[in-house]
């Protein structure tokens, strides 16, 4: 188990050579692993991170949810998510690290990429399995990105932006039927705002009615909306965010259970333990033992 806080890497700390920009890195997965052999332990990024597997086996974990490695699989992560991996055999594919501001000079809407369902920050929504016939076009896009990475050609950064956005759109189109449904603009705005409010206030605000007031909707409407969009009530979404942060804190063995409860604004350690066990099925102490 980690004996220190989960490390957070910035995009420059994981650069390889002299890229065309400090805002983006695209590399072959095998080369990335060879250059960064020490980052398979749990860690976070301050940037968007994605990987595309074309061959290999093993597993990778995003926010404590484990996924088997499969050819044709992509995983997308937003800044702040925790992940680790355990690969077996040779891993082939591509990796991309891109800053939140990479598209700002190109798009009027600086939150445009958040529209893609795989950038929701929810682990399962960030893992996409491409059908075999859809792999080749995505491979071609990554190869084109690699060719632009040295920045030798004029407008290389703009071409990279175009290629990355095309890849996002192609992956969205190749997803499940539910993923292919574009969210209506007004629903997208409400969902994005709710999730951002939860991210900002989950330690203090735990009731759906508190978020409904901030969003100028009724609690009943917010719950019905969340069930329609995400299959969960607003209360479940808030609770899941609290549980996720509890797990992120518990992985640090130097922080006591009581200190975790305090940081998460629980009245006492006993209440936190009951809350955690009710929804996770195990106590915080048992969770720590399981991840050691």
TrEMBL record:
Gene3D superfamilies: Homeodomain-like, Jelly Rolls. Residues 192-290 form the HTH araC/xylS-type domain. It comes from the Bacteria. Keywords: DNA-binding, Transcription, Transcription regulation. Coiled coil: none annotated. The keyword Ribosomal protein does not apply. InterPro entries: AraC-bd (IPR003313), Homeodomain-like_sf (IPR009057), HTH-like (IPR037923), HTH_AraC (IPR018060), RmlC-like_jellyroll (IPR014710), Tscrpt_reg_AraC-type_HTH (IPR020449). Pfam families: AraC_binding, HTH_18. SUPFAM superfamilies: Homeodomain-like, Regulatory protein AraC. The keyword Transcription regulation applies. This is AraC family transcriptional regulator.
């Amino acid at each position: 188990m980690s004996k220190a806080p989960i490390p957070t890497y910035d995009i420059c700390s994981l650069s390889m050579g002299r890229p065309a920009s400090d805002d983006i890195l695209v590399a072959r997965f095998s080369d990335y692993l060879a250059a960064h052999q020490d980052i398979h332990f749990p860690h976070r990024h301050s940037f968007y991170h994605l990987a595309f597997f074309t061959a290999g086996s093993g597993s990778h974990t995003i926010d404590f949810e484990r996924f088997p490695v499969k050819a044709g699989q992509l995983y997308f992560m937003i800044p702040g998510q925790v992940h680790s991996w355990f690969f077996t055999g040779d891993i082939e594919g591509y990796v991309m690290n891109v800053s939140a501001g990479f598209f700002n000079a190109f798009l009027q809407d600086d939150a445009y990429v958040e529209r893609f369902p795989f950038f929701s920050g929810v682990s399962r929504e960030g893992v996409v399995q491409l059908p075999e016939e859809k792999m080749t076009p995505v491979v071609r896009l990554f190869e084109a990105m690699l060719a632009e990475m040295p920045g030798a050609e004029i407008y290389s950064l703009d071409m990279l932006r175009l290629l990355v956005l095309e890849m996002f759109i192609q992956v969205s189109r190749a997803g499940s039927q539910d993923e292919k449904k574009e969210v209506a603009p007004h629903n997208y705005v409400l969902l994005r705002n709710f999730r951002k409010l939860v991210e900002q206030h989950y330690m203090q605000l735990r009731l759906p009615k508190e978020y409904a007031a901030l969003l100028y909707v009724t609690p009943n409407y917010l719950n019905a909306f969340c069930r329609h969009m995400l299959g969960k009530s607003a209360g479940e979404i808030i609770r899941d965010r609290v549980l996720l942060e509890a797990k992120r804190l518990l992985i640090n063995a130097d922080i006591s259970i009581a200190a975790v409860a305090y940081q998460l604004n629980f009245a006492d350690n006993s209440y936190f333990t009951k809350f955690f066990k009710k929804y996770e099925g195990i106590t915080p102490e048992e969770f720590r033992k399981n991840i050691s």
